């Protein structure tokens, strides 16, 4: 990754800090897109510089193809063309199929799915002209598994997954690899996906067979692998990073620590 240029679509996301740390550690130059004009980046810039990584913070509207193109033109002059795209936009709000307002649905789809499309289109053309590149979509197990609490989020992640598949097929002919990370439960997921109709996240940490939740660092390590040459034959893959969470189906056999009361079936 040394001197490779990595674009992180949402520098304000829960996953961003770990991604920045992992890629800068190996000397990658970073383009961080943030929607927050008031966010302080001084400490991050110092940290990345100390690791030998150059950092550029941008504020492009990723649902605007013109905004993305302008941002990429400026970024290329400073750091060079993008080698790795990490789309990690994951806007979420509680909304059921019955109650979701049109504005809420459109906003979630704009932030997650529309931004993924325009980023893929803009960067795909530039990468194809050079004959190589890697695109990584940070998605969720809920691109297939309903949340029972945020229908618009699930719909947007399903859209991102199919977009990635189509892109892998088309862009793969130009030497570009496109893969999806389907992230499972992390700390706080039971609150994020609290549902009146689904018990999926009840005692969720014990539904991971190993009894340990995933972290942003786990995600960053996998993204780093997918971005590199070691993953050269991986294209169009959906990698479920959930510790086996979705394999669980019997609550009374949860892997609870000794001393905790075990549920009865």
From TrEMBL:
Stretches assigned to coiled coil: none
Keyword vocabulary terms for this entry: Oxidoreductase
UniProt KW Methyltransferase keyword: no
Pfam families, alphabetized: adh_short_C2 (PF13561)
Keyword Oxidoreductase tagged: yes
UniProt xrefs under Gene3D superfamilies: NAD(P)-binding Rossmann-like Domain
Database matches in InterPro entries: NAD(P)-bd_dom_sf, SDR_fam
Similarity comment: family membership: Belongs to the short-chain dehydrogenases/reductases (SDR) family.
PANTHER family reported for this sequence: OXIDOREDUCTASE, SHORT-CHAIN DEHYDROGENASE/REDUCTASE FAMILY (AFU_ORTHOLOGUE AFUA_5G02870) (PTHR43639), SHORT-CHAIN DEHYDROGENASE_REDUCTASE FAMILY PROTEIN (PTHR43639:SF1)
Protein name in the entry: Glucose-1-dehydrogenase
């Amino acid at each position: 990754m040394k001197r490779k240029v990595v674009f992180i679509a949402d520098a304000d996301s829960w996953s961003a800090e770990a991604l920045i740390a992992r890629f800068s550690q190996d000397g990658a130059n970073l383009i961080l897109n943030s929607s927050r004009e008031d966010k302080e980046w001084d400490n991050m810039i110092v940290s990345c510089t100390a690791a030998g990584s150059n950092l550029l913070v941008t504020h492009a509207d990723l649902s605007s193809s013109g905004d993305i193109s302008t941002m990429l033109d400026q970024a290329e002059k400073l750091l060079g063309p993008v080698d790795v795209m990490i789309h990690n936009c994951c806007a979420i709000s509680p909304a059921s199929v019955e109650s979701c307002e049109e504005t809420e649905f459109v906003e979630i789809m704009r932030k997650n799915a529309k931004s993924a499309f325009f980023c893929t289109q803009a960067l795909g053309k530039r990468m194809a002209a050079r004959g190589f590149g890697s695109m990584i979509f940070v998605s969720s197990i809920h691109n297939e598994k309903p949340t029972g609490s945020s229908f618009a989020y699930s719909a947007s992640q399903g859209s991102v997954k199919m977009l990635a598949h189509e892109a892998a097929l088309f862009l793969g002919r130009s030497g570009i690899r496109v893969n999806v990370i389907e992230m499972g439960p992390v700390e706080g997921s039971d609150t994020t996906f609290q549902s009146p109709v689904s018990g999926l996240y009840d005692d969720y940490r014990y539904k991971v067979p190993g009894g340990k939740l995933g972290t942003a660092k786990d995600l960053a390590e996998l993204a780093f692998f997918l971005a590199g040459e070691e993953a050269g034959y991986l294209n169009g893959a959906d990698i479920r990073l959930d510790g086996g969470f979705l394999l669980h189906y019997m609550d009374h056999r949860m892997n609870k620590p000794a001393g905790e009361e075990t549920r009865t079936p």
